[in-house]
Amino acid sequence: MSAAQPEEGTGQRSAAEREQEVLDRAERARRRAPKVREERITLAHGAGGRSSHALTEAVFLAAFSNPALDALEDQALLAVGGERLAFTTDSFVVSPLFFPGGSIGDLAVNGTVNDLAVSGAEPRFLSAGFIIEEGLAVADLERIVADMRAAAAAAGVTIVTGDTKVVERGKGDGCYINTSGVGVLSRPVELGARFARPGDAVLVSGPIGEHGITILLSRGDLDIESDIESDTAPLHELTAAVLDAADGVRCMRDATRGGVATVLNEIAGAADVGIHLTEGALPLRPDVVGACEVLGIDPLYVACEGRMVVVVDGAQADAALAALQALPAGVQASRIGTVAADPAGMVLLETTFGGNRVVDVLVGDPLPRIC
Amino acid sequence: MKYVDEYRSPEIAAQLSAEIAALADGGHHKIMEICGGHTHTIYRHGIEDHLPDGIELVHGPGCPVCVMPMGRIDDAIAIAEQPDVIMTSFGDMLRVPGGRGSFLDAKAAGCDIRMVYSPLDALKVARNNPDKRVVFTAIGFETTAPSTAATLLRAAAEGLENFAVFCNHVLVCPAVQAILDAPGQDLDGFLGPGHVSTVIGAAPYEFVARDYGKPLVVSGFEPLDILESIYRLLQQRVEGRAEVENQYTRVVPWEGNTRALEVIDRTMVPRDAFEWRGLGTIPDSALGLREEFAAFDAERLFDLPGAVVEDPRECQCDEVLTGQIKPWECGVFGTACTPETPIGTCMVSSEGACAAYYQYGRFNRAAATAGAGA
Fold first, then answer.
1. Which helix (H) or strand (E) holds A324?
2. Is B108 part of the contact surface with chain A (CB cutoff 8 Å)?
3. ipTM, 2 dp
4. What is the pLDDT of residues B313-327, one digit of tens each?
5. In angstroms, rounded to a whole number, what is the distance separating the alpha carbons of residues B89 and A146?
6. What fold is seen in the domain B1-313?
7. Residue A357: which of B1, B43, B328 has the nearest Cβ?
8. Cross-chain Cβ contact A354/B46 below 8 Å
9. Where are chain B's structural domains?
10. What is the pTM of this model?
């Protein structure tokens, strides 16, 4: 019976030992190559959590596997001639198309710029593919395009090629955009989640969760009023500043779908390290905290579109943090945690209440279509 | 955040924690938190790290999606599959597996299934889609029943003809009694649910103390609420008392919310019996719609399979829900049954005992050790 007290010295395993055994077994199961068990694609496959990983690994990676792709970073690093290039692509299906703080146009440029910048590359060229639903107001398309032009100018990239398709009414959601981007990696750096190691510090470049909460509230399903705005922004200046200030940067990731928690789990898994977070150090706007409390959502899982996680040698954490905080976009940057050897592959949070808990990968996303 | 941080003070927690340890005095105390919301709080804030080893928290049946039997899920999907139906429900319901898949699977197969935050949102969907039949799958204890009731009253007042409710509201006291009557039950006390009690009050639990001699403290949802309630339970044990106490007085009136109870009574009546996942069929344990609301009753409007679907043999949700085993003691925990491939309902909702343990709790001891060494 479970309630029995641990036996002492009888050779019988104690409840605590048996519990640990089950936990170890569960942990091994958790790390096994994921399978797609469903017969059809569900929304969970697009949510950035465990189901998305399963789809990526079991379907796409199985078919396309190669060294550049297998790293599963936000961009592929390619050697072409004497140059090192970063190459990435991203699709944007956010609903609504316009929201406080930005539009699908801002996201389409900033999202791809950021996927390049976090590799240490300087973003240069973008493509833009539009899938437009019959009936979209031309004025809306012009607004989206104007946002893209302004975002591209701010990030120092040029949109050099594109494509347009129009689908029948009801077959799209106003407008979907795909952007691909190329950047040049002129710094002698090699960044990647797999390089995180014990003793490193974990930084975040600004308050988290604002984009996801903005989208949720702007859908109007909830009668909550607030002035939270999307954090959509290019990160290239922040990434350059961090790399200038510290040569011990291990990896940078923009915390989009699935939020900071998902990114940290990817890092913990890729480097086989434990990440220890301090809840009190997480930069959070009070109204984001309030909305999350009301909705029962953990802000660690809420998407950002202009924030990144930086893992850096612990000895250089202060220099990297100071470099972030010196820029307007990084004023509220914070050191949120530490990398340790154990528990390998996991993210733990020390709560402000003085307890500990696991910050796991989400299975599905409570906020669909956020980017 | 104001009005929240006050209930999460680590300093007060440390004091309470020391007082709890003194009261527990090395003994073993098995306490069930009935409500899934409490389970969530316990894991989210790491409350077990504040408790001495001898205090065992058992996660009870108070997660509404966890107690939904598979046959009812199949019934709901059968409704969703009818032509021109828009099915609506709370987000928690989407991934709950029935005998032939979940709402999410049915949606992928072509059903129009939408997540709503309130039954009133479902009413909005009905107004905006007059050529469709909009059904709300209502779940929950007495906590959510008043909002379903208010929605029914409004639908009736508006004369909406394309709106129906598939009612699965359940009652907390019969479930608690079923647990108390279960053979081998050895609980020492209960944390009484907070949200349910805002509606029904604390008085209905008096049978727990009177007839079964177990203390029960109705508790709030902040971490300090839970610690204080555990303290008060231990105090009763030490003093040899068994009473119903209300720790959550800032929200829960002893006699409940009479307005809310009145709207429930106007629209719903207790069913003779209802099947609970894990607890079996319990008499007078659920609500159905009153005859006067037959026009809104999906059970009368649609032809339902109504089959009783046996739980998978390897699933031990029943033993988890009644506190006989801990989540990790289930044979399929964490291997065959995980949040992405749940076999049992306890693994689905974040309030489910197994999902909460899997997501937050499974490394607690190691966390404490690693944290100390870091």
1. helix A317-325
2. yes
3. 0.78
4. 888 888 887 778 888
5. 39
6. Rossmann fold (3.40.50)
7. B43
8. yes
9. 1-313, 317-368
10. 0.85
